[in-house]
Amino acid sequence: MKDSSFKWFYRFGLLLLALLCILVFFKVQFLWLPVIYMFLKALLPFFIAAFITYLLHPLIEKTHDKGVPRPLAILLIYIIFFGGIGFGAYKSYPIFVEQVKDLNEQLPHFTNTYRHWVESIHDRTTSLPNGVHEKIEGSIDDVEATLNVWLTKVAEGLKSLITSFLILIIIPFIVFYMLKDFSSIKKATAYVTPKKWHKPGERFLSDVNESLGNYIRGQFFVCLIIGVIATAALWFFHVPYALLLGFIIGVTNIIPYFGPIIGAVPAAIIAATISIKLVITIVIIIFVLQFLEGNVLSPLIVGKSLHIHPLFIMLALLLGGEFGGVLGLILAVPILAVIKISILHIRSYTLKH
């Protein structure tokens, strides 16, 4: 009886000691957090390069299977990918910068229009009961606060992108060496992994690649098509900043279900300062794009690679947005896919043992 009591006391002491160590660890985060941040910043180009390598490697394998020598296949896909990005950036960069500059100059006009709307809403709601009037004004304040936060994040993101330009330059070189030595990297990974994990690990990674890889590649291709079509449609209907707004619509389209709505907000806000007719035009364009994506592009390009019910995807998006903001929305579905495959593999393993 005494031994049993001593064991529980010993375990309780260990638990308290572990909690104390965790508390001290987080209390001194000012010491280790900058170091971790520095390492993450240094490793960021490698993470981005690894992701691009993951996207391009299947194309290289398919090209190689058709009889093209592997070095030539790597060089061909590499040049097409980065050459296409470089050519697109070269052609669109001056227009993009001009539109951003013009938008910055027009901000006072948009601000005055917005203030006029707020004053109009305030005048029209003064006759309502005090509780309703206060709630409407509170909602306007909340929207203003949210817009300020988003604009601050966008400005900080653009600033960090500019300051990281020199780091991003080395990504194409890292991608080239990763593609060239892909088989060597696989062998090195297998070498440092215990042998008993080789076959289960290969099956797990194969299932993840089959489900998640097709989804990611297809989703990026769909976003590119939607971005191009959106830009062309906005330009055709003489919507200001067509390239900038089309780029936003294409990027946000990577978020399932909510992406088109998020991407439509900036275009609708700018159109609302011009005419109601233009707002209706924007709504119709977004509706057509969403219909095209949901009924033609996604089924044709992405397919049902995830095999996850839409309700679970929506739940993952809500949780991702709550915990990680925009980044959480983007990563929610891939993380959900990996979790699903992990659960299936764990279940299969436990049934066998």
From TrEMBL:
It is found in: Membrane. The chain crosses the membrane at residues 12-32, 38-60, 72-90, 160-179, 220-237, 243-262, 269-292, 312-339. It is a multi-pass membrane protein. GO terms for biological process: transmembrane transport. Keywords: Membrane, Transmembrane, Transmembrane helix. The keyword Transmembrane helix applies. InterPro entries: AI-2E-like. GO terms for cellular component: membrane. The keyword tRNA processing does not apply. It holds the Pfam family AI-2E_transport. It comes from the Bacteria. Belongs to the autoinducer-2 exporter (AI-2E) (TC 2.A.86) family. This is PurR-regulated permease PerM. The lineage of its organism: Bacteria, Bacillati, Bacillota, Bacilli, Bacillales.
